[in-house]
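Follow-up to my post from last week.
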Amino acid sequence: IAGITQAPTSQILAAGRRMTLRCTQDMRHNAMYWYRQDLGLGLRLIHYSNTAGTTGKGEVPDGYSVSRANTDDFPLTLASAVPSQTSVYFCASRPYAANTEAFFGQGTRLTVV
Amino acid sequence: ILNVEQSPQSLHVQEGDSTNFTCSFPSSNFYALHWYRWETAKSPEALFVMTLNGDEKKKGRISATLNTKEGYSYLYIKGSQPEDSATYLCAFLAQTGRQLTFGSGTQLTVLP
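User reply:
Got it. Predicted complex:
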């Protein structure tokens, strides 16, 4: 693993099903983020975590949950998927210091039908 | 919800033109302001991270300025090239909570 990796790359999911999007980084970054890409709206923050063991809600947290059991992993779970959750999801991480940039995974394209 | 706004939403310029975009953000609770370049079918990549009022950063033909007191940042591209075509995102890092909130982006198309 080099950098930040998301899995799966793409997924078609039946409405009502449960789905976990995986995000793993090997840079020992403290902060991690989940975003969804929506046309005309850019990247909207779903949940974030500033350090292992803590999480926070972003702009659009409803229908999603996260956990941060360790520094490397930050999975995003859709408990019961709905079509409006069709989107491209990006995971990102960064060191905690103010002057550090975020690094992004390659994205997961999720289609809920 | 932190209000981060970018303008214009999209922009078409001719090769060789210089252009600029605006990002406005809350003037309180400021920790840092990021600029990213996002090409189609790729992931966003950082251009600048700015933390101090009055900061000016430059990378090649691209530069950025920061005014934290009034809550805005400008991104400038000098002599635009077709390869500059991308969406440019700004992101506000809040002091409290440390959420990294993105604007909706400016989509730049440089016509040859």
